[in-house]
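Many introductory courses stop at the sequence. We go one step further.
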Amino acid sequence: MQHFFRSVSASLFGFFICMLMFAERADAQATSSVSGPNLTADDDAAEYRIGFAEVSGPEGGWAIEQRLSLQNAISDRFRIRGILQLRKAPGEGTEFSHVEADFLWQHQKKTTAGYASAIRLDVRATEGNRPNRVGLNWLNQIDFAEDWRARGMLSVDREFGPNASDGAILEARANISRKIGDRQRISLDSYHKFGNTDGGLGSFDDQEHLIGPTLSHSLTDDWDLTVGALAGISESAPDTVLQFRLARSLN
C-alpha cells in the first residue's frame, strides 16, 4: 500500500509538471459537475475535462478551461484526489489557474430507500495576487425509481491569502437523470452560484444560474465520456457553457 501511494504521488506530480510546461480565463462551471457521493474501494481513476464558456461583451469569444485529475480510493468510504486547472481568456494564452486537493468521506452508504451522502473537503492554491480557497461540500444522491436518480450538492467556500474576501461563497448544483441503455445516462443539470455573503448575495440576475442536458456514455469497461451543454438563465451567467469529460479507471 505504501508503495502504491508513492507511485500515485510521483505520477500525479509528473502529470502536473508536464501540463505546466505546455501551458501557453474561463468560468469554473465549464469543468464542474454534479458530483455523486457513492464510492467503492477500487475507485481509482484519471480524468481530463475541457470546457468552453461564451464570453459576453463587445469583444466576445470563448473562454476555455482544462482540468486534469487523479484520484485514489483509500477504502470504500474515503478518497483523495489531486486537480490541476488551466484557463484561457479570449485573445490570450493558456495560463495556470490553480491546483487543488480534496478529501471525500462517504458517511452514508446507500440505504434501502436509495439514499447516499458524502462530505468533501477541498483546498485550492493559486499564484500571484489571487486568493486561495477552502471549501466544504455536501453530496447527496437518491435512486428513486428503476433507472432514475437525483443528485444535489451544496458548497460553502472561504477565501484566504492575498486579496481574500471576508464572507462565504455559496453554490449549489443538482440534476435528475435516467439510464437509457446499458452504457448511457442522460440528465438535466442545474448550476447555481449565489455569490459572496460579504457583499450580499444580490438578486437572481446578479447571481450565476445555468441549466442544460448532459449525456454520459461508457465507451468501454475502463473509459467513460460525458458531454454537456448549459444555458445561462440569469444576466450574470455565461450565455452558453459546453462541457467535455473523459475518464479512465485505473483498475
